Amino acid sequence: MAGNSLGSLFRITTFGESHGKAVGVLIDGVKPKLAISEQDIQKELDRRRPGQSSVTTSRSETDQVHILSGVFEGKTLGTPICLLVWNKDQKSNAYDAIKDLFRPGHAGYTYLSKYGIQDYRGGGRSSGRETAGRVAAGAVAMQVLAKRGIRIIGYTREVGTISARKIDYGEIEKNPVRCPDPEAAKKMVRKILKVKKAGDSLGGIVEAVVKNCPAGLGDPVFDKLEADLAKALLSIPAIKGFEIGSGFAATKMMGSEHNDSFYKERKTGRIRTKTNYAGGILGGISNGEDIVVRVAVKPPSSIPKAQSTIDLKGRSRKITVEGRHDPCLCPRVVPVVESMIALVLADHLVRQEMLRPRDSLAAVRKRIDFVDDMLMVLLGQRQDLVREVGRLKKSRNVPISDPRREREIIRKRLSLVSDANLDPGFVRKVFQAVFQDARKIQKNV
Ligand SMILES: Cc1cc2nc3c(=O)[nH]c(=O)nc-3n(C[C@H](O)[C@H](O)[C@H](O)COP(=O)(O)O)c2cc1C
Predict the structure, then answer these.
(1) What's the first-to-final CA gap in the chain, in angstroms?
(2) 343-383 pLDDT tens trace
(3) pLDDT confidence band for 103 (50 / 70 / 90)
(4) Beta bridge partners of 291
């Protein structure tokens, strides 16, 4: 009956209402000895919290997370983890004047129909504030994914009719709309502020890309990976649509265009596809390509513009929703989307481990193979740069050998050995070999 939990083995339950004492989450199924700190979680919550910029609500919550259980001396215990965020800046009396009115686009009427009672203050449980618990749990899931090299990047793709024309991940956190195209971002901000001034709001599209997801996640037939992603993402308040890969555009393509051709990557031996219309999932199972999803974010319902509605007795009334609301939800939805994806993937990773335990010799060797493949790609990238430096040195008559730079590189890397759990002697040896090879390459450019 209750729908407050998500996931089967890595499972979360969120709790709290917008104007109650607190919101939060209980996470079960996190393995012991995972390093977790309040700072890791706080970093993600800060990206979701209100009051970040002129294009988000001015409700001023610090959203300080408290770890109540499940973590000891910075490591998970394997027991339930409870994360709590106190509500501090509710200003509930702003809702007194409209408490008997059904706010258009809000869940007051449906909550009342279902439960026969509702906390009308700030949307109660249906509020975007509930997503603080999701983001806190998502931060824990992201630590699980980071251990496997999996990364999730979310961004605002469209606001109203303005679209990002280029995708530069480095730009996302540099502008208030979290758009990867700085030029489009400026237009989006201008448009949002204009619409806000007119007492209205705007919708948009948030896109997310999952990098390095291994092939094999997803449980056909009812728990296909895209089905679980769709459910998780559509459960975010204000999300009206879900697409994966080519999405609805697939309806206008031919099979010959849409089929992603397979090939074997020369450098790594990995099975890849030349295009990615599938969006990284085939038959409900990840195929190792980037997982690409998009969600439609509706224009937020709370607007100062006068709208018609009815009161609890069914009488016609006019309503203007004053107070502190987001004129466009996309920038705040981005971290929520990333978190929901992280939660689904963390759950499916644990499920896959149950099916094919990772600690069998073959499975561990497969993981080593994957790391070695990545090392090969990185070494190739380093050599390309070494050649470029060699050409620059030659054109400027700079000597190839540079012992000071080599010492500096080793010093920097040695400062990281304890974090990476590496032996300093080994790191020194590896870099000396790398330098020897680099000198040889530069002599021949
Ligand atoms: C992070 C976040 C913040 C939100 N803030 C607002 C807001 O300020 N004003 C508003 O009208 N809706 C806001 N919403 C959306 C409403 O909670 C949601 O539209 C409403 O509860 C009705 O649910 P539905 O749109 O999913 O049907 C927010 C959603 C999220 C995810």
Answers:
(1) 69
(2) 999 999 999 988 887 767 777 787 788 788 888 889 999 99
(3) very high
(4) 210
Q: Which of 89, 106, 109, 110 to mutate to test the pocket of ligand 1 (most atoms within 8 A of CB)?
A: 106
Total residue length of the chain: 445
- Report the C-alpha gap between 47 and 336 in whole angstroms: 9
- Which residue, chain included where needed, has tokens 């450019």? 445
CA of residue 255 relative to chain centroid, distance: 31
Cα–Cα distance list, 118 to 14, 63, 307 (Å): 18, 24, 22
Distance CA 290, CA 151 (A): 10
Using a 6 Å CB cutoff, which residues line ligand 1? 57, 106-107, 123, 126-128, 131, 236-238, 298, 300-302, 325-326, 329, 332-333, 336
Give 300 Cα–ligand 1 centroid separation in angstroms: 6
Q: What torsion do the CA atoms of 60, 65, 66, 68 make, to the nearest 10 degrees?
A: 120
Q: Model confidence at 58, in pLDDT bands (50, 70, 90)?
A: low
Closest ligand 1 atom to 59 CA: 8
Question: What is this structure's pTM?
Answer: 0.84
Per-residue model confidence as pLDDT tens digits over 223-238 = 999 999 999 999 999 9
Owner of token pair 């990476």: 420
